[in-house]
Amino acid sequence: MWKSIEGCFSVLKANIKRHLTIYREAICDRSRQLDQNGDVITLAGRQMRVLERAAKAEMKCMTSVLVSRMELHCSKAVNAAAEGIPMVYGK
To answer: Is the pTM of this model over 0.85?
Structure first.
C-alpha cells in the first residue's frame, strides 16, 4: 500500500462491515415499514439507512493518530522498496 488514505479507508470499511454484522437482521428485514409521510420504505431504502447509520457511527475511527500511523507505514514501505528490500506481509 503506497497511499496512506487507502489504508485509512480500509480501516473505515472494516469497521463499517463489523458494525453491519451486528444489524444483519435489520438489513434483511422484509416487513413493510412506513416513513413519516406514510409511504412504504423500499428494501433498498431501509438498507441504505442502516448503512448510513453504520458509517456515521464508525467515522470516529478516522483520527489523526490513524492517519499518522498509515503515513508512517507507507513511508516505510516506500523506503524499503527504494532500497530493494523485499516486502514481508504481516510485519
So the answer is: no
- Note the Cα 37 to chain centre separation in Å: 32
Place of cell 413493510: 32
Q: Which residues pair with 71 in a beta bridge?
A: none
What lies within 8 Å, CB to CB, of 49 at 6+ separation is: 41
CA distance 22 to 68: 29
Across 43-52, b (16+ Cβ under 10 Å) vs e yields eeebbeebee
For the chain, 91 residues long, the average pLDDT of each consecutive 10-residue run is 79 91 82 79 84 91 89 87 81 63
For the four alpha carbons of 38, 44, 50 and 55, in that order, the dihedral sign comes to negative
Rounded Cα–Cα distance for residues 30 and 46 (Å): 10
Number of H helices, E strands in the chain: 4, 0
